[in-house]
Amino acid sequence: MVSPRVHGVIALVEENCTSCMLCARECPDWCLYIESHTETVPATTPGGRDRSTHVLDRFAIDFSLCMYCGICIEVCPFDALHWSPESDYSEGSLLDLTHERTRLSGWRATPAADGPSDVREPPDPVSGS
Question: Are 107 and 11 in contact (CB under 8 A)?
Fold first, then answer.
C-alpha cells in the first residue's frame, strides 16, 4: 500500500499556464524549461488599449534533475502545476527523463488510486482516540 502522503509526478494543466516563469525562477534545480512568445490581443472596447499576452510554446521538466520539492507547485498562482498520483514514469535512458508538456498534461487525467490507507490518523486531542 502507498501512504497518502506520497506523491507521484508533477503534472501540468496547460490551459492554466500563463508563462509567468515563476516556477522556473524559484526552482532550486533549474529543471523546468519554458519557452513562450508574446501576442497582441486587440482592444475589445472603443478607445481601449491592445493587450499583450504570453503564449506557451514549450514546457518541459527534466526529472533527472528534479528533487521533487514541490516549490514550483506552491509558487504557481494559476494552479497550472500539481502532484499527479502517477508513479510509473521511468525511462531507459537519463536523456529520456525530460518530459514535454504533452506528457505532463496527460498525467493530470490519471485517477488517484483508491483503497485503504496504511497510515493512521493522529488521535483526536480532545477524546484521545
Answer: yes
Q: Given this model, what pLDDT does residue 126 score? A: 56
Q: What confidence category does residue 8 fall into, taking pLDDT thresholds of 50, 70 and 90?
A: confident
- pLDDT (average), residues 34-45: 94
Q: Are 89 and 99 in contact (CB under 8 A)?
A: yes
Helix (H) or strand (E) holding 47: none
Q: In whole angstroms, how far apart are CA 43 and each of 36, 48, 51, 53, 114?
A: 22, 5, 7, 12, 48
Q: Please work out, in degrees rounded to the nearest 5, the angle formed at the alpha carbon of residue 110 by the alpha carbons of 14 and 99.
A: 50
Task: Check: CB of residue 30 under 8 Å from CB of residue 43.
Answer: no
Q: Is residue 14 part of a domain?
A: yes
This prediction's pTM? 0.75
Amino acid, res. 108 = R
The total of structural domains in the chain comes to 1
Task: Check which CATH number belongs to the domain holding 80 and give it.
Answer: 3.30.70.3270
Q: Which cell goes with 80?
A: 497550472
